[in-house]
Amino acid sequence: LLTCDDGASLLPTLLSRSYCLRLAPVGQEECRQALEEAYPGETGEALERAAFLAGGNIGRAGKLLTDEGSRAALEQAFALLAGAAQGSEYEMLAAMAPMEKSRALAVAGMEQTQRLLGGVLREKAGQSAGEAPKEVKQLAGGMSFPKILRLYDGAGRALDMLNGNVSQALALESLCGRMFGTKCPEVRDPGKGGCG
User: Fold this and answer.
1) How far apart are CA 47 and CA 50, in angstroms?
2) Percent of the chain with pLDDT over 70
3) How far apart are CA 90 and CA 60, in angstroms?
4) Max Cα–Cα distance, the chain, nearest Å
5) Judging by beta carbons within 10 Å of its beta carbon (0-12, 13-18, 19+), is residue 82 exposed, middle or buried?
6) DSSP strand pairing (194-195 vs 187-189)
7) Which pLDDT does position 193 carry in this prediction?
8) How crowded is residue 103: how many other Cβ atoms within 10 Å of its Cβ?
9) How far apart, in whole angstroms, are the C-alpha atoms of residue 113 and residue 158?
10) Among 10, 49, 51, 159, which residue's beta carbon has the most beta carbons within 10 A?
11) Cα R_g (the chain), whole angstroms
């Protein structure tokens, strides 16, 4: 049994000898039901929020309910995007301050920011699979499509920079620069680690 998230990245010799079974996340309601069985002590609101934010990925939703690091990264992502929705560079920088101290939190924070922005974008476009949490609805109402897309792209670039071993401060500042249009360094090739 071999699992991967991108079949195109496998060697053709492996693919020719394999049977591909494509799996997709379950729907939000099915995810919530699975969470309800696995975590009976959680409130309905917490289960709905986790199911929505995990995009139907039951394991990821479970981590949002139980893992302190995942919850901390998600709260940082919410704070960051609330600052962006207000147009406050200060609020965004304040939300990112804890991420400057921990690369693990910075990486998890940018991953959660991208996932959260995906939910905000689906809500804004009216394509949510289920009921969005109130915070997601507020963010969708407070940001335009171009702003959401700039943030999504900026979080992806910051994540690439972090994975390319660029300092947390520089990577996170690039997100603010992307959002507010200020000139900021970009890593052209994270594998080489140089700015340019």
Assistant:
1) 5
2) 91
3) 30
4) 54
5) middle
6) antiparallel
7) 40
8) 15
9) 11
10) 51
11) 18
Structure tokens at 71: 């919850």
Task: Produce one character per residue of 39-63: b if its CB has 16 or more CB atoms within 10 Å, e if not.
Answer: beebeeeebbbbbbbbbbbbebbbb
Determine the Cα–Cα distance for residues 48 and 32; give it in Å rounded to an integer.
Answer: 6
What single-letter amino acid sits at 79? A
> What dihedral angle (degrees, nearest 10) is formed by the CA atoms of 39, 32, 109, 189?
130
Q: What percent of the chain is helix, strand and coil (3-state, nearest 5)? A: 65, 5, 30
Residues contacting 61, CB < 8 A, separation 6+: 31, 35, 50, 51, 53, 54
User: Which tokens belong to 76?
Assistant: 């940082």
Q: Which residue has the tokens 């997100």?
A: 175
Q: Would you give the distance in Å from CA 45 to the centre of its chain?
A: 20
What is 105-147 written as a DSSP string?
HHHHHHHHHHHHHHHHHHHHTT--SSPPPHHHHHHHHHS-HHH
Token readout for 129 is: 């699979």
Helix (H) or strand (E) holding 194, with range, is strand 194-195
The torsion angles phi and psi of 125, rounded to 5 degrees, stand at: -85, -5
The identity of residue 68, as a single letter, is: E
Query: Which residue shows structure tokens 């680690």?
Result: 193
**Of the candidates 183, 11, 155, which has an alpha carbon nearest to the alpha carbon of residue 95?**
155
